[in-house]
Structures are given as C-alpha cells and as structure tokens.
Specification:
With 149 residues, the protein is of the alpha+beta class. It is 42% helix and 30% strand. It has a five-stranded mixed beta barrel with strand order 1-2-3-5-4. A hairpin with a 2-residue loop joins strand 2 and strand 3. The longest helix has 40 residues.
C-alpha cells in the first residue's frame, strides 16, 4: 500500500469514530433532556402572572440569587437566556422562559402560565386573547424576485 492510501484510510477512520461519538452522545443527551422535561412538567403549577418586562440577558445580569447563578451549568451562565420579570401575587419575580413561549408572551398583560420553580414551561391563556406572532424571517434574493416580500 502506498502512503496516500494509508493516510486516506486513517482520515476516514477518524471521521467515522467522530461521527459515532456524536451520534451516541446526542442520543444520551436527548434521553437526559426528555427525563428533565418530564420532571419539569410533573412539578408544574398554573399561576396567574402580570408580565412587567421581558429581555434576553445573561443569568448573572438578570438579578437571580447567587445560589442559582452558581448552580447553573457553565453554558447557561455564559449564554443569553429569555428572562421575564413578572408579578405573581404581590411579589415581583424574575423567571426564565422557553424560547418559543418568550416570543408570544405579551408585555403588560395578565397571563396564565405553567411555572416549575423559576421556569415558565407553558402559556395557557392571555387575558384579552392570545397574541398573533408574525414571522420575521428575511427572504433572500429569490424571495424578492418571486415577490414574496
């Protein structure tokens, strides 16, 4: 065998090993995420909240207690999360929200949501009707030529 064949086979073996590691690692992480999701839904409570403000910000800038910031994973503490300031009862609390709920959650309106700890997992209803969210995707050159924008 010549050297080029050996190098090519080595590269193929390394790429195949990498793909297998990503595949099995992804399956393991998906299983873990499903278990955590089931636990969140099991502990969820319906609460009526008045949304004061919503922003995307880092966990340490959101005003959470130090124990929450320290116990968060490193990736979560570095990333910008959807944060909602809401009045629940007579207390103003800072909550973390899911991305898709964050987009439709109206500001300055009363909502019924499912809350699990500091996490909003579901939007049940909004007083005055559910808001409609427009798709703000940019179209490319082909979309402009077709007249879709």
């Amino acid at each position: 065998m010549n050297t080029a064949t050996i190098i090519l086979l080595t590269i193929c073996a390394v790429v195949l090993a990498g793909l297998l590691a990503v595949y099995f690692g992804g399956r393991k992480m998906q299983k873990k995420q499903d278990e955590q999701r089931a636990e969140l839904e099991a502990h969820g409570q319906i609460a009526s909240i008045l949304v004061i403000d919503k922003k995307k910000m880092k966990l340490k800038d959101a005003g959470f207690p130090d124990i929450v910031v320290k116990s968060a994973p490193r990736a979560a503490s570095l990333a910008k999360l959807p944060i909602v300031k809401a009045k629940i009862g007579n207390k103003i609390q800072t909550l973390i929200c899911e991305e898709d709920i964050f987009k439709v959650l109206p500001v300055k309106k009363e909502c019924k949501v499912v809350v699990s700890g500091l996490y909003i997992i579901e939007l049940k209803s909004v007083r005055g009707g559910m808001p409609v969210v427009e798709n703000n995707k940019k179209g490319g050159l082909m979309a402009k030529l077709r007249g879709e924008q």
